[in-house]
């Protein structure tokens, strides 16, 4: 039995396998075919934070695959009525896969430790592996491959950035991050990444204009993530020079695409002119959550296409 708690749980070959299943199922979906690879399987979603894309994409893809899903809200009492271990043992005795969006990364790790079915991270403070898989799928579709493609992250070295950096390292893409001092990746994270993937192409700078040079994709996310609301005003000041706007996009190759995991704070990390431009792929990227996660569910639950 496998879990997807962090993208670093997956080898390069496993990421390739998930993306291959995703691309195959997406192409069938576009031809009107919804292959019921997981008939009767049940997925439970346990979310401690808000979500549109993650919830809808998981529920939709499980339905397309012939299974069912249960969104467990506050009334299930996750982390409140009983221990996480008891909650998880009972839940995993009845469902086939559990998707957890938790405030602390250690919570999803705890669920994985006690579950008797696969557990998927639907976002924590440290990782957003399913987002990264959808992002890799999006870049691969756009450019026909990932090898040597530079993905430039402009902004906070947050959960989404970390998963994407790992995803790039494992697929031969280059990851460049432009962030102000104090918001770059922790040294231990970069050290671990290089230890796990000695061939990783990763660079860090505080200069967004230098970082977008040669980029295939420019990616940003909110400056204050869920749980960091109290820091929002300080972060607005700290990231003022890191907005992805027309001037920054003009410093990138003209065929570079713009990505954002969404939801976006328009006028802060990105301007309307960029997110609504022909270079923007944010809607396709969000829709790829559904396709990528079909790959995750089919791979984790051992369905054969
Ligand atoms: N990108 C993403 O995870 O969106 P939600 O927070 O809406 O799920
Ligand atoms: N970094 C953001 C991503 C939301 C999908 C957050 O954690 O709030």
Automatic annotation (TrEMBL):
Q: Main location per UniProt?
A: cytoplasm
Report the locations given in the UniProt record.
Cytoplasm
Q: Does the keyword Cytoplasm apply?
A: yes
Q: Which residues form the Aspartate/ornithine carbamoyltransferase carbamoyl-P binding domain?
A: 2-141
Q: Which GO terms describe its biological process?
A: citrulline biosynthetic process; L-arginine biosynthetic process via ornithine
In which pathway is this protein known to take part? Amino-acid biosynthesis; L-arginine biosynthesis; L-arginine from L-ornithine and carbamoyl phosphate: step 1/3
List the catalysed reactions.
carbamoyl phosphate + L-ornithine = L-citrulline + phosphate + H(+)
Q: Any idea which positions bind carbamoyl phosphate?
A: 101, 128-131, 261-262, 289
Question: What domain of life is recorded for the organism?
Answer: Bacteria
The protein's Enzyme Commission number: 2.1.3.3
Q: Where is the Aspartate/ornithine carbamoyltransferase Asp/Orn-binding domain?
A: 147-300
Listed binding positions for L-ornithine are 159, 221, 225-226
Among the GO molecular function terms of this UniProt record, one is:
amino acid binding
Keywords, in A-Z order: Cytoplasm, Transferase
Q: Does the keyword Transferase apply?
A: yes
Q: Which GO terms describe its cellular component?
A: cytoplasm
Q: Which residues form a coiled coil?
A: none
| Family listed | Belongs to the aspartate/ornithine carbamoyltransferase superfamily. OTCase family.
HAMAP family (UniProt xref): OTCase (MF_01109)
Protein name, entry field: Ornithine carbamoyltransferase
Instruction: Give the organism the record lists.
Output: Posidoniimonas polymericola
- What lineage is on file? Bacteria, Pseudomonadati, Planctomycetota, Planctomycetia, Pirellulales
């Amino acid at each position: 039995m496998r879990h997807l708690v962090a993208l670093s749980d997956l080898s390069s070959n496993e990421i390739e396998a998930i993306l291959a299943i995703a691309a195959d199922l997406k192409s069938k979906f576009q031809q009107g075919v919804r292959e019921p690879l997981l008939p009767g399987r049940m997925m439970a979603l346990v979310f401690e934070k808000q979500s549109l894309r993650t919830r809808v994409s998981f529920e939709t893809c499980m339905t397309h695959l012939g299974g069912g899903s249960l969104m467990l809200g506050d009334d299930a009492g996750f982390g409140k009525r009983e221990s996480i271990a008891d909650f998880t043992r009972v839940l995993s005795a009845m469902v086939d896969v559990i998707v957890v969006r938790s405030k602390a990364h250690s919570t999803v790790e705890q669920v994985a430790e006690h579950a008797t079915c696969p557990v998927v991270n639907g976002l924590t403070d440290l990782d957003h592996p399913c987002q990264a898989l959808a992002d890799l799928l999006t870049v691969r579709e756009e450019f026909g491959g990932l090898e040597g493609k530079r993905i430039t992250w402009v902004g906070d070295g947050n959960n989404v950035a970390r998963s994407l950096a790992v995803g790039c390292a494992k697929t031969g893409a280059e990851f460049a991050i432009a962030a102000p001092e104090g918001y770059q990746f922790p040294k231990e994270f970069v050290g671990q990444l290089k230890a796990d993937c000695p061939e990783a192409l990763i660079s860090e700078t505080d200069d967004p204009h230098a970082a977008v040079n040669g980029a295939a994709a420019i990616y940003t996310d909110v400056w204050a993530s869920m749980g960091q609301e109290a820091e929002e005003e300080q972060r607005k000041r700290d990231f003022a020079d890191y907005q992805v706007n027309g001037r920054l996009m003009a410093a990138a190759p003209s065929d570079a695409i713009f990505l954002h995991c969404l939801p976006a704070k328009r006028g802060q990390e990105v301007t309307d002119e960029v997110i609504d431009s022909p270079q923007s792929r944010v809607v396709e990227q969000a829709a790829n959550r559904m396709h990528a996660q079909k790959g995750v569910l089919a791979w984790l639950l051992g369905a054969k296409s």
